[in-house]
Amino acid sequence: MAEAPLDRTARLYGPESMERLRAARVAVFGVGGVGGCCAESLARTGVGNLLIVDDDIVRPSNLNRQIVATTATLGRPKVEAFAERLAVAAPDCRVEARNERYCAETAADFDLGAFDVVIDAIDSVEDKALLVRSALSHPDVALFSSMGAARRTDPFLVRKSEFRKVEGDGLARALRNRFRKSGGFPQRKFVCVWSAEPPRADGSVAHVTAVFGYALASLAVGAIVSGAVLRRGS
């Protein structure tokens, strides 16, 4: 008998969890080295409804680490290329691709409260702070955020912790400063993926950015299958 596409996943999680994943709605903001691996992992694991948001195109400098970047996708909008990739890799996942930047001018166009999980893989501190605040303003939405994956080479130093416990991360430091200057920290706490490795010279590698992305996907899947966030499932 032929195996179903999600058979191996179902063996781990069981039918009830697979139904929760199928009903879940997850939004991934930023589908570069971190967010791209996160989005693909979520789709391949059985998440049924996925929004991917990014306004960038695939560039030659992305080829070393971004899962959507190939010589065939150069110059194309990342979300467009990603939607096509997921259509053949995880055809049961309903993907909405928005070639937009999440920022002050566009934030009102996104109904974050309609999602069970929001993944923040944004690089811009200003946009990141806005997304974190906006997502956490909805009490039923789980937010998981990526701190800096660039300038690291050791995937074994990737960690998860509550945002206030992140140490030695420049992006987290800048985000804290942004919060302090714009009304204080969000009322709800949130979990981040970050690296304990001291930053090196500028650059990024796939074996670190991918670990960040897969760690974020694991956090999202864990929240969904536990029933902690799913409100629309059966």
Can you give a write-up of this model?
The protein has 234 residues and is α/β, with parallel strands linked by helices. The protein has one domain (14-225): NAD(P)-binding Rossmann-like Domain (Rossmann fold). Helices cover 36% and strands 15% of the residues. The chain contains seven helices and seven strands; from the N terminus they run ααβαβαββαββαβα. It has helices at 7-13, 15-23, 33-45, 78-89, 125-136, 170-181, 206-225, and strands spanning 25-29, 49-53, 94-98, 117-120, 142-146, 158-162, 191-195. A seven-stranded mixed beta sheet has the order 3-2-1-4-5-7-6, sandwiched between helices. Strand 4 (117-120), helix 5 (125-136) and strand 5 form a beta-alpha-beta unit. Helix 1 packs across helix 2 (15-23), helix 3 packs across helix 7 (206-225) and helix 5 crosses helix 6 (170-181). The longest helix is centred in the last third of the chain and has 20 residues, at 206-225. The mean pLDDT is 95.
Topology:
Layout: H1 7-13, H2 15-23, E1 25-29, H3 33-45, E2 49-53, H4 78-89, E3 94-98, E4 117-120, H5 125-136, E5 142-146, E6 158-162, H6 170-181, E7 191-195, H7 206-225
Parallel strand pairs: 1-2, 1-4, 2-3, 4-5, 5-7
Antiparallel strand pairs: 6-7
Helix pairs in contact: 1-2, 3-7, 5-6
